[in-house]
Structures are given as C-alpha cells and as structure tokens.
Design brief:
Blueprint lengths: L4 H5 L3 H24 L7 H40 L1
Length: 84
C-alpha cells in the first residue's frame, strides 16, 4: 500500500529518516529478488521507488520550512535593530 504524503507530513524528521532507511532496504531486497527471478510482484520496485520519492519530498519540505523560519527570525531581528 503506497504511503500517503499527508501521513508523512505528520511524522517527525527523525521518523522520516527511519522510514527512508526501511524503504531503501526494501528496494534492495526487491531488486535482488528481481535479479534472481523470484520476485512475485514486479510493480513492487516501482512502488517502493515512489514511496522513497514521497519521503524525500516531505523531508525537503520540512527542511525548507525550518530554514525559512530561521531566516524569518533573522529578518525580524534585523528590522528591530534598524529601527533603533
């Protein structure tokens, strides 16, 4: 079952990193099964890749929001200093 971006956005950054590690291991496992010819669901590789992309997208969104909030705080502090 594919991961929902909405559910991923509710997770902490640390949990997202753990999920990314888990999905990377799944991808390696599915690729190995594919090479050996024992994979039953050939679309599993594609689905795991899409899930990895979703996790990375949400992680980048969170990092961007953190950095933008930090720069916003700096801008507010600079504005206060310039008023004096």
């Amino acid at each position: 079952m594919p991961l929902k971006a909405k559910d991923l956005r509710n997770m902490e950054l640390k949990d997202l990193k753990e999920k990314l590690d888990e999905l990377s291991e799944d991808l390696l496992k599915h690729k190995a099964e594919s090479r050996m010819g024992t994979i039953k669901n050939t679309s599993a590789i594609r689905n795991v890749k899409k899930d990895i992309a979703r996790v990375l997208t949400v992680m980048n969104e969170k990092k961007a929001s953190i950095s933008s909030s930090k720069s916003n705080v700096k801008t507010n502090n600079e504005a206060k200093l310039s008023k004096k």
